[in-house]
Every structure is written in C-alpha cells, then in structure tokens.
Design goal:
heterodimer; A: 214 residues; alpha+beta; 2 domains; three-stranded antiparallel sheet; 7 helices; 54% helix; 17% strand; elongated; disordered C terminus; B: 238 residues; Butyryl-CoA Dehydrogenase, subunit A, domain 3; 51% helix; disordered N terminus; Paraquat-inducible protein A (chain A); membrane (chain A); PqiA-like (chain A)
Amino acid sequence: MREVPDLIACEGCDALYRKVSLRRGEIAHCPRCGTELDRDAGRQRERILPLTVASLIMFMIANSFPIVEIELQGLRSQTTLFGAVLSLTTEGMSLVAMLVLATTILFPLLQLLFLLYLLLSLRKQHRPAGFRWLVRAMQNLRPWGMVEVFLLGVLVAVVKLSNMATVIPGVALWAFGVLTVLLTAVVSFNPRHFWQMAFAGDDASGKDHKGISP
Amino acid sequence: MNNADSLSASDDGPIIVAGDADLPAYTAAGHGMMSCHHCGTVWQEVRDHEDCQRCGTPLHMRKPHSIMRSWAFLIAACIMYIPANLMPVMVTKTLLGTQQDTIMSGVIYFWVSGSWELAAIIFIASFLVPLFKLASLILLTLTAQKRSRWRRLQRAKLYRLVEIIGRWSMLDVFVVSLLAGLVQIEGFAKITAGFGVLAFASVVVLTMLAALSFDPRLTWDSNDTEPTANQSKRLLRN
C-alpha cells in the first residue's frame, strides 16, 4: 500500500487528476462529469473559528427562547424547538420526535462542537485525541443537519397560523435566521481540509495549499 | 499493473485528456488505485477492504453492494410513499370540530385561501421533490446496473441535484412538528401530528439513504470505455 500524493481521483467518475495550487477562492471541477474536486479554503480557514463560536452562541439563543407565540381569544401559547419535540413524544410520535431532535438540534450541535474542538487543538499544533473518528463523524453528519429547512418550516407555520390567531415572533426566530446564515458558511468548510491541515507538518511539500488542475 | 508510476513521472499538466463525457479518461480503478471516500487520499498497490493509512476508513474500489443497497432503500421508500400521501399528516381539533389534513389537502387549503406562494412551496417540497427524487434515483440505479452509456453527463448532474434537494422535503415534517408543539390551547384548538408524518419522514430518510448508498462512479464504469494502458499513453502524448 503506497500513497500517491500528487494525484486526486474525482468522486463522481473516478477520473485521475494531478494536484496543483488553487488561487484564492478558486474551485476546481472535474471536466468530465462536473463534480467539485476541490476548493481553495485559504481565507475560510481564518474565518472558520470565529464563525463556529458565533454559531454556537446563536444556537444557544435559538434553542433557549420561544420561537413564536400565538394569541387566540386572550389565551396564549408558545413553544421552543425542544418543546415541540417533547409534545410529539407525548403524542406517541417518538420516531418523528427523534428525527426532528437529531436533524435540528443534535447533529448541528455535534458538528459545531467537533469543529470547535478540532480547530482549537490544531491551533496548538497538535492532533487531538480521537482526531480520525471526529473528522469522519463530521463528514457523516454533514447531510443530516437541517437547520435551514427548519427555518423555512417555521416561516410556513407562522403564515399558516396567522389566519387563525395572532402570531408574535419570538427571539429564537431571529436567532434561527442568523444561525442559518452562519451555518451555511461553517458547513461549506469541508472536513477533509482537516486531513491536509493535520498532515501538513508530516511532509515538507506543504500539501495544504494545493488544489487540483484538470 | 502500475503504469501509474510513469503517469506520475510525466511532466506537469493534465493526465486526463477527456474534455467531455464521450472521451475515455484515466480512472483510478483503471490503474489499480483507490481513493479514500473520507479523506480523498489516493493509494496504489492496495487491496479491497484494506484500511486507509491516513484516516482508517476501509478502502473500496466502489461503494460495497451499492446497487443492491440503493434498490432496497428505494423499494422501501416507494412503499412508504403511499401512506405518506394518503394518511393525514395533521389533525386539527377546534370548537368547530376535527379536521384531518393530508399533504395535498394542505396544499389545496393554501391555494383556496389565497396564499398561492405557500401552496407552491409545500407542493414542490412535499410532493414534487420526493416524487422527482424517487424517479431520478430509480433511473440512475437502473442505468448504472445496466452499465448504460446513455446521457452520462446528464445523469451525473441529476445525481448532484438529487443530493442537494433531498433535505428540503423535510419541510412538512418540521411544519407539523412546530404546529403540534405550539397549538395546544385546551378547549379551543389543538393540533396533533398524524400517522402520515411518520410515513412521510421515512420516505425522506430512505431516499436520502438511497442517494448516499448510490455510487456515482458506477455511472461512468462501463466495460468498453476503460482505455487500455497503450491507448492511455497515446492519448496522453496527443
């Protein structure tokens, strides 16, 4: 078993390409099938830590306060995201409750915490315990975090309710909006860069700033 | 086996000559190399199931049992698609009585009450997208199984589209969950989730799993297109 360091295989069609340096913000696509091969993460690497911390703060706010409040005939009702999950459980919809809990709370939170831990320890120039496992878990979690879909769901629900009751947007609604924007930036950081960052010191070639050319 | 050595040793520049889908390309599989699905490292002189030395993931030429797994998830999704559309997703109890909504009746309600934008969003996310995903994945799996060369570039684009839009079908599940959590006013109005939500959520998860098990590289694998080593060298010099 031998590594071929200067080659990359397209994930979409298995075509082989030679790696070359990408310029700032450049994205390389496979000319045969169009799949993204690599993108330059130069500037993103400086921003990713502050973005992660900001996302975690927004995440706490979004989940601690009510999303919306409704008023109907003088009676009020409000809920947080976790409250909605709980009421699904009490209605016997525990499977759906678990799915909502996982995709909107658990997976995004784990992604952010793993990212924070990995970024902080790489800053101190060491590969942390469980590095391999954490980076792989982050790759696997990526498709299953659905905060942006949830935000659209909240907006649809608000419009739906506005016909039958007075709807007062809560603090968490705005926090979810900001969180969605932040997460879009955070999630676009491919965990694969961690492999290049962590192994950059191992070989003198400094592979971390290399991309691919078709 | 390893003309990879000669490839790596050649001058800088592309080692692929194909500018479009119709030209044969140098593939990792064609040179006995495997790329790690997780970290992307390319290995040579490697056996199937060997662990990647960088990240520890087992290496495979192609995702194991990709076609079979995709079919299993797709068939299950097709079955669940029926109750997802027929059973109520939301049950509303008000002073006026009990109302049961399926996905389509929700769309019709929005359309009739004048919010056609919302009707369109829910119709697209909850009805069109899952149907489109099921049809696309069946088409992709079927053509990959037959090693068809039909419209390979379009099929590659279709796969990427399916991957991107997959998550958005969860919209209705979130809408119902939030409404069920919010509208709990004793005596006046109470919204609960119907069994349809469970079926619908399972369709979304199953189609996402089907898309994840499908290996897009199978679209490009066909017996007649893999260039022999000599052909490859000739193409490289041109």
